[in-house]
């Protein structure tokens, strides 16, 4: 499938254009279906985008927001994507959006897969917008090449929506959408900043081993829009 590249001069220009694109898709989804939904990734990259989205003019009360993945930590932990979204996206105009986080009281993520799947069933899917990041190892979502769960996460014959993952090169258990669920999304974006991530993407595009660089599994099966700035 295709990678549609949008390369911006700087992150401000990227976030302004990306925000407008997302708001346009969500508005269309609300007009067509009464509600729209977006799944976001965590990490460092999206924080400024979240801030731009939070002040956008949109009927956020008709938007469902969820996470592509999260670290299995308390939602007040600095590593929590739930915390990141609550502090940077669910504020200002977007404060009234319906947020469905992943973290439960379960000590282990694998004990929460059914509960997360049930929570997702209650919101509008397939996602109108799904935003992926990528690590330097080519992981996306929490589909980590180093994890014992990677083949399960990439298995398109599975009906699993979420997967509990234990990376070995990054901290914390994770809860992640599976590849199969990611691919159902109507608009998939890959949000990257910096030359280093662009080089990693180029390596991913040149190779074929999807378990080695799981971002390949998405790029090979979906039209993905790259939103990149140096
Ligand atoms: C996470 C993300 C993960 C992230 C990449 C890039 O929970 O960490 O979902 O897939 O998108 O690791 O993270 P940075 O934006 O911090 O480089």
Keywords:
230 residues, alpha/beta, three-stranded antiparallel sheet, globular, Rossmann fold, binds 6-phosphogluconic acid
**E-strand count:** 10
User: CA-to-CA gap between the ends?
Assistant: 25 Å
The helix/strand order is EHEHEEHEHEHEEHEHHE
Mean pLDDT equals 97
Count of helical stretches: 8
- CATH class, named Alpha Beta
- CATH fold call: Rossmann fold
The major beta sheet can be summarized as:
7 strands, parallel
Low-confidence stretches: none
Strand order, biggest sheet?
1-10-9-6-2-3-5
Radius of gyration: 16 Å
Write down the overall geometry. globular
Helix/strand-derived category reads alpha/beta
Kindly summarize this structure in a few lines.
With 230 residues, the chain is of the alpha/beta class.
Overview of this structure, please?
By secondary structure, the protein is an alpha/beta fold. The chain has a single domain, classed as 3-Layer(aba) Sandwich (Rossmann fold). The chain has helices at residues 11-33, 47-54, 81-88, 113-121, 150-154, 179-182, 195-206, 215-219; strands at residues 3-7, 36-40, 63-67, 69-71, 98-100, 129-132, 162-165, 174-177, 188-193, 224-229. A seven-stranded parallel sheet has the order 1-10-9-6-2-3-5, with helices on both faces. A hairpin with an 8-residue loop joins β7 (162-165) and β8. It starts with a strand and ends with a strand. The structure holds 6-phosphogluconic acid (6PG).
Topology of this protein?
Layout: E1 3-7, H1 11-33, E2 36-40, H2 47-54, E3 63-67, E4 69-71, H3 81-88, E5 98-100, H4 113-121, E6 129-132, H5 150-154, E7 162-165, E8 174-177, H6 179-182, E9 188-193, H7 195-206, H8 215-219, E10 224-229
Parallel strand pairs: 1-10, 2-3, 2-6, 3-5, 6-9, 9-10
Antiparallel strand pairs: 4-8, 7-8
Helix pairs in contact: 1-2
């Amino acid at each position: 499938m295709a990678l549609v590249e949008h390369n911006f001069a700087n992150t401000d220009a990227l976030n302004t254009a990306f925000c407008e694109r997302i708001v346009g898709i969500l508005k269309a989804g609300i007009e067509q279906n009464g509600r729209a939904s977006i799944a976001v990734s965590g990490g460092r990259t999206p924080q400024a985008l979240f801030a731009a989205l939070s002040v956008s003019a949109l009927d956020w009360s008709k938007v469902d927001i969820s996470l592509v993945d999260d670290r299995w930590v308390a939602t007040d932990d600095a590593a929590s994507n739930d915390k990141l979204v609550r502090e940077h996206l669910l504020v200002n105009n977007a404060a009234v959006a319906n947020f469905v986080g992943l973290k439960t009281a379960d000590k282990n993520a694998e004990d929460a897969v059914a509960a997360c799947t049930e929570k997702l069933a209650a919101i509008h899917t397939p996602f109108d917008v799904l935003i992926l990041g990528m690590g330097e190892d080519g992981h996306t979502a929490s589909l980590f090449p180093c994890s014992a769960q990677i083949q399960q996460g990439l298995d398109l014959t599975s009906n699993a929506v979420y997967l509990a993952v234990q990376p070995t090169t990054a901290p914390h258990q994770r809860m992640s959408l599976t590849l199969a669920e990611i691919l159902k999304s109507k608009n998939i974006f890959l949000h990257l900043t910096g030359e280093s991530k662009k080089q990693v993407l180029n390596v991913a595009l040149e190779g074929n081993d999807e378990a080695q660089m799981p971002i390949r599994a998405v790029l090979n099966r979906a039209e993905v829009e790259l939103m990149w700035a140096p």
